[in-house]
Amino acid sequence: MTSTTSTTPRADDEQLKQKHRAMWASSHYDRVAREVIPVLGERIAARLAPAAGERVLDVAAGSGNAAVPAARAGARVVASDLTPELLEAGRTAHPDAPVEWVVADAEALPWPDASYDVVMSVVGVMFAPHHQAAADELVRVLRPGGRLGVLSWTPEGFIGRLFATMRDFVPPPPAGVQPPPLWGSEEHVRGLLGDRVTDLAFVRDHVEVDLFPGPTDFRDYFRENYGPTLMAYRALSGQPDRVAELDAALDALAAGADEGGGRMRWEYVLVSARRS
């Protein structure tokens, strides 16, 4: 049986959170998760191996590409996300999956300490603007000995370079907001988690993407479906020269990553640990 619950995000940065929510609600990230990177949810579920009856929390779950495999393994799964539209897309796509869909802020999770046996996030929590606050929450709701898994794009990989490319075309973020790909840096994550975890491991891998025959196919798809890219173009409304510059920059990025026939490798790091 599925259900949807809502919580209220913190008031001190509500405007920033509203912008983030609107960015993902305006896009079709559920399509990206389903068509481009569906394997990532399966990979983190395989790494963490949730068992029947275990309590699992998927933070910044989107449409549930990690929550659903965990639930089908028999775990009791909650998929939480700041954006109700993404959760609804997941609930609609997987009506029979035993997942509870909960609107919640990754930086202020509504559950008591030590509520879960497994806490995970797949290219999700990395977009929370305040990394330390989000990391603190991931650890807080995990029971001692529980398993943590966070899969993030690396700064050096294709999506990390996508963000670096778009940076010159968007307004600077508010003070204190950190770049999402930092979650793909081992040094950064070690600093976020500190001595609160043991058995900390970093596994770099990649997802093979062959959905885009050419650079313009990639650019058009991401402009339509991927929230950060969509918002970058919206920020350039009424500036045709700048739009053309961004077009060219994204085309060059995709062309440079093409290994032949439109095949690309997008690097990520899968961080796993146990709470001390």
From TrEMBL:
What InterPro entries does UniProt report for this protein, alphabetically? Methyltransf_11, SAM-dependent_MTases_sf
Q: Please provide the record's keywords in A-Z order.
A: Methyltransferase, Transferase
One Pfam family named in its UniProt record: Methyltransf_11
GO biological process terms held by the UniProt record: methylation
Asked whether the keyword Methyltransferase is assigned, the reply is yes
Keyword Transferase listed? The answer is: yes
Highest taxon listed in the record's lineage: Bacteria
List GO molecular-function terms, semicolon-separated: S-adenosylmethionine-dependent methyltransferase activity
Residues in Methyltransferase type domain copies: 57-148
Q: Could you tell me what this protein is called? A: SAM-dependent methyltransferase
Annotated source species: Nocardioides cavernae
